[in-house]
Structures are given as C-alpha cells and as structure tokens.
Design a protein that fits this description.
binds iron/sulfur cluster; 28 strands; 19% strand; alpha/beta; 686 residues
C-alpha cells in the first residue's frame, strides 16, 4: 500500500470537454492515468465535476489511439515514418499552392485542442502559403456570437464571468440547456436560484434547464427575433428603457424603437401569448441587474448573428451591460471555442482579433513573424463551411486538425462527397475517426493529458493545461508537428521547444493578451483577457464605462424577423431541432470510449410528441425513419410532451444520425449553417 501511495502524482489541469473550463487533478500512477481528483481551489467548479469531466481520463489510454503516421497507398493506409509523412505533406501542399494559388488550400483547426496548436496552425498557413483560408469549428457553433457581439458591443466575447450570476437579480437563459451542455455553469444558476433569484428559460423544448425555471417560455422554434422585438415593444411602451444609459453609451435607439413597434403583437410568429411576452419583458426591464445567458439555440440558425444582436439589443435598451450581475454571455460548447478564435484561427483576423484587412496590422505581423513586407494577404479567407462547399473546385487540399467533419458538420452525405473530391487531405487527430478514411495522410497528435498548453474558457479565462503522461507510440505535440512542417519548408520562427514558447510567440504580437503570462496562469483563478501588460490584473467584466467598439458606444439595431431557410410543409411536415446530452461530447470520439458514458446513452434517439406518435402509430422505443431533403436516419422514438406537436429533437453526437438530415443553408453574416432547424418527415419502421 505504501509503495502504491508513493508513486501517485496529482497534476492540476483543465477539463477537455465543454467551455466552462473546470479545473481538476489528473491522478497518475507509475506513468499511467488512474483517475481524477477534485481541485477544490478552482474558482470555477470548486472541486465539482459533471459525468464527462469525472471520466475524462478514461479515453486517454484507450487502445484505439493513433500511434504512428499513416499514409494511404492505394485503398489501404500503411504505417509511415515522420520523415516520410512530413516530406509528402510539404511537397503536396507546396505543389498545389504553386499551381493553383493561395486560395486552393484550406486549414481547419479544432476548438478542442490547446491555444498553442491553433496559433501554430494559422501562423504556418499564413507564413508558408500566404493564405487566410484558416478557420476553426467555432464557425458551426459560436461564429454568430463573434460576429453579433462584435457588432453590438465591439467585442465578440462573453461580457461577464460565470459566477457573476450570483450578483444578478434576474437570470434569462435563452436557447441554452446548460444543465446538460454546461453543467457546472448551470450549477451557478442553481446557486442563484437557491438564494431567490428568479430564472426565466426561453426554449421551445421542456429541457432539463427549463425544469429549473420559475417561468418557462415555450415558443415556436427559431422565432427569436420576433419574440425579442415584441418584448422590447413592451419595455419601450411602458417607458422602462434606461434613458440615461441609451443617451450616454449607445446609438441606434430610434431604429430599434421603430422596428419594435412593428412587433407590438407577434404571437402569430412566435406563438407566445401576449400576457407572457409582456410579463417577461417587464421582469427583465425592472430587474436591477439582469443577465442573459444563451447558447446554440440562438446561434445555429441562418439568423444566428441577428439573434445574437437581438440579445445585445435587449441588454443595451435596459442598460444591462458593464457591471457585475448583468451582461450577455454565450456558453461555449467546447473547451477552447473562445481560444481557437482568439488565436487567429479565423479567416479575417490574427490573434487578438487584429483585422487582416488593416495594412498596419499586416505590417506589424510581417515584422513579428519575420516575413517579407507585403507578403501577408489582406483578403477575407474562406470559412470552414465554405471550404467544404468548395472542395474539388477552388479548394484542392485541406489540413484538418482535431475535427471529424463527417459526423459534426451539416449534411453528412454532402461532407463525404466534398472530402472525396480533394486532391490531398491531411487529418491530424488522436483517434481514427469516420473522416480519416477520406484522408491521404493521418498524423497522431496528443491529447490534453499528454501536453502542456492553455484552453480559454467561455468567460475569457485562460486556463493552464498540464502534461500528466506521455502520448502513445510515436505521437507528437500538435504544435510540434506544425513546427516540423514549417521547418521542413525552411521557414524561420517555428523552432519552438515548448508550449510556453509558442504562447510567448503569440502574446508578443497580440496587444490584448500580452500580459497573460504562464506565470500568472499558475494561480487557480488565472486571468481573463484583455490583459495588455504584465502588471495588468486582467478584465473579468467587459464594457465598464465604455464599450470596446472604436467609438466606445454600444449599437442597437432594428432587426426584422426572417423565417428559417427550410420550414415544415406538406411533404416534410415536422421541424427537427438538435442539441446535446450530458453524457456525450460531440461525435463521441472520446466519451463513447468511456464505459459508463457509453452505457448511459449507447445509441441515438429522437423525442417525438405524444399526439404525433399516436397519430403515426409509434410506440415508446420503437424504431422510426426520419427523412429530410438531404438524407435519412433510423433511430429510436422517445415519446414525450417535452417537445411540442410537429417538433422533433435529436442530439448531434451520433454517426449516421441527425447530421444526415441537417441543412447547409448559411447565415449570411457569420456563415453558420442552420444546424438547429430543418424540415423532415417521419415513418414507422415495419
Ligand atoms: Fe468538464 Fe464542462 Fe463538465 Fe466542467 S461542466 S466538468 S468543463 S464537461
């Protein structure tokens, strides 16, 4: 017993799953992970974990891990050396770029990997190939948050920290099932509820989070703008707008007022009785400090950016920005959604959201990266969704780091066809995924437990990730692989020897993050960006006294409601909504390799309303076929009144699941596909 004890090591690190960023200790015995232990000093989760966090170590040492580079020869993948793989990739990418130009390459990185990997990939793409075709999977979750919050407030990030809900007098959760998707953020909401803070949940479905609410507002799916405008009509009619705040700190009120008047009674659109609309509007406007928390119910629509701006409108109209207990906070589904965007893995900005179109920014980055004057491109690169649409046409080769597009992007059949059209595809991952079969080279990276680095949580807090064990076989740090590729091409500025060196490279050219040092991150509370100097304490609450926009003002917009791209009709009479489960994460690459999580939900299912099931003769747990204009899936029926008649709900975690059905129609501003809404038909399987 003594001998076992003496070899145990506790490594404090950050949970690899959702964007709450809980801290935990990985327990290591004799070089192997054996469990997790609470990290009680964490100000985020105070030693508590959800089922995913508590089991996050189990998938790390699974025998399915990728251990060697693989190169496709004919139809088969064969083990290769790192030299062979690096030679082939640099040769093919250079050839394709020389022949077809900088726009022929696409680079996509994951919101699940550390900041240092994201920074390295976008730097390599821009320096080596002079392309801005670099993006990350925030595009298909919170792209509209980046666009919408930037337009409303001047910064595309959450305004206030999670625990700040304890300072609120009213919490509005809109399009967020935090109890399942962000359990430790929901814990803060539960703490607030316990001390008497009223909770309003706005969701078409009676979700686990709706069960927490004092007021649950069921509305017609995807009618957010109409509902928000209708609320603002009542706020203005009752004279409850914050006149001084509007005058001193905002612009656009007249446009907003005019638009709100058009929505004086929009029940025919959103389906909510006017007494309820008025009641929640007045509750929000009268609260001393009211916060809005939202998630993908708001963003994953073709109106995503306008939905986010509607949340901004509500907050600006009532002066609920820029102090404790207020704000507009998107909950990020993946551990590093915030960070991947912050690192400049985005088609129009460098790290810290420095715009590529600005000549002064380009000149500064050229100097920092030691590249020729005028070599960095000024054009807006192709987004992740556009790259998939352009495969085989403009895009000839693609580099995908830590993503499984076949399962997680909309319209799986379209994604498979697109990847199949590429001349050359590299996938760098930790497991063999459904997407790997379309690759020419598969490279083994390392997971969160095997490397140092940082994740930036949804509250802009930069948290340390620490290496606990070695990666399997010949796997390498992901930033190290990018460094090898760059060095093979003779590029300077990629000879990092540690994650800290990558981070220091980034912060040296990123004014808003210059003061976020690894040393500061040693404290359990770490630091929130912006943090411009090493002496700066960080900024937990944004927009205090002045908005981040160039003129210092918040902007209100008059926004017209637009219906989804595809609505139910006679042929496809049901509306399909999508979401997450507490037990799984994304395409289940990791969580399904954990026995307990697999056992909880081993296969996909669909929620269908009791009346609809009766009409179709479908009983509980029977198999049903669901078909959209793009594909079909067979799944198990869960008959329930949690969804309204003619509305279905499926989670997004399963292969050959809901993304066989979803629509690729895009939000024109953020290029977000309409993952949350499509029209389908339902049949009982004989
Ligand atoms: Fe991990 Fe999110 Fe669960 Fe926290 S709430 S333990 S970050 S999955």
């Amino acid at each position: 017993m003594e001998a076992i004890k003496s070899t145990l090591k506790y490594v404090p690190t950050t949970c690899p799953y959702c964007g709450v960023g809980c801290t935990l200790n990985l327990v290591v015995n004799d070089g192997k992970l054996v469990g997790v232990e609470p990290y009680k000093r964490s100000p985020i989760n105070e030693g508590k974990l959800c089922p995913k966090g508590a089991t996050c170590w189990e998938a790390v040492q699974h025998p399915d891990r990728l251990t060697h580079p693989l190169i496709k020869k004919g139809d088969k993948f064969e083990k290769a050396t790192w030299d062979e793989a690096i030679d082939l990739i640099t040769k093919k990418f250079t050839e394709i770029s020389d022949k077809n130009g900088a726009r022929a390459l696409g680079f996509q990185t994951s919101c699940r990997t550390v900041n240092e990997d994201c920074y390295a990939l976008q730097k390599w793409a821009r320096v080596a190939f002079q392309t801005n075709n670099v993006d990350n999977c925030a595009r298909i979750c919170h792209g509209p948050s980046v666009a919408g919050l930037s337009l409303s407030f001047g910064s595309g990030a959450a305004t206030n920290p999670f625990e700040d809900v304890l300072n609120s007098d009213l919490i509005v959760m809109w399009g967020s099932n935090a109890v399942e998707a962000h359990p430790l953020a929901a814990r803060r909401v539960m703490q607030a509820k316990k001390k008497g803070t009223p909770i309003i949940v706005v969701d078409p479905r009676y979700s686990a989070t709706a069960r927490l609410a004092d007021t649950w507002v069921r509305f017609t799916p995807s009618t957010h703008i109409a509902l928000a405008n209708n609320m603002m009509y009542y706020i203005i009619r009752e004279g409850l707008e914050d006149k001084e705040f509007i005058k001193e700190r905002t612009k656009g009120f007249d446009d907003l007022k005019m638009m709100a008047e058009k929505y004086a009674d929009a029940t025919r659109i959103h389906g909510v009785p006017q007494e309820t609309v008025k009641d929640i509007a007045l509750q929000y406007a009268k609260a001393k400090n009211a916060v809005i928390i939202y998630c993908l119910g708001i963003t994953e629509l073709t109106t995503g950016t306008d939905n986010v701006r509607s949340m901004g409108n509500l907050a600006l109209l009532t002066g609920n920005v820029g102090r404790p207990g207020v704000g507009v906070n998107p909950l990020r589904g993946q551990n590093n959604v915030q960070g991947a965007c912050d690192m400049g893995a985005y088609p129009n900005v460098y790290s810290g959201y420095q715009k590529c179109e600005d000549a002064a920014n380009r000149a500064r980055m050229e100097k920092a990266w030691g590249v020729k004057d005028g070599s960095l491109p000024d054009w807006y690169g192709s987004t992740l969704t556009e790259q998939i649409n352009d495969c085989g046409d403009v895009i000839k080769a693609m580099y995908i780091l830590g993503l499984n597009p076949v399962v997680t992007y909309p319209d799986s059949n379209h994604v498979k066809r697109s990847l199949g059209k590429l001349d050359f595809l590299v996938i760098q991952d930790i497991y063999w995924t459904e997407s790997c079969q379309y690759a020419d080279v598969v490279l083994p990276g390392t997971c969160f437990a095997e490397k140092d680095g940082t994740f930036t949580s949804g509250e802009r807090r930069v948290n340390r990730v620490r290496k606990a064990v070695d990666g399997p076989g010949e796997s390498k740090y992901d930033w190290e692989i990018i460094g090898m590729l760059a060095k093979k091409m003779g590029l300077k500025g990629f000879d990092w020897t540690s994650a800290k060196e990558v981070w220091d490279d980034m912060r040296a050219c990123t004014p808003s993050m210059f003061g976020v040092t690894y040393e500061k991150m040693e404290k359990p509370e770490s630091v929130h960006w912006p943090c411009p100097t090493e002496e700066h304490p960080g900024t937990p609450i944004l927009h205090c006294g002045k908005f981040s926009a160039a003129d210092g003002k918040g902007t209100m917009f008059g926004l017209e409601y637009r219906p989804p791209a595809e609505v139910a009709d006679a042929e496809y009479p049901y509306t399909m909504m999508t979401g997450r489960l507490i037990f799984h994460y994304h395409s289940r690459t990791q969580t399904d390799r954990c026995e307990d999580l697999h056992r909880e939900v081993p296969e996909s299912y669909v929620q269908i309303n009791t009346e609809d099931a009766k009409e179709l003769g479908i009983r509980q747990h029977e198999k049903i076929k669901i078909t959209s204009r793009r594909g079909e899936t067979i799944t198990t029926a869960r008959v329930t009144d949690d969804v309204a008649p003619k509305v279905l709900y499926m989670t997004m975690h399963f292969n050959e699941g809901v993304n066989n059905l979803t629509n690729t129609a895009l939000d024109p501003m953020s290029k977000m596909p309409e993952l949350k809404h499509c029209a389908v038909k339902v049949e009982k399987v004989a």
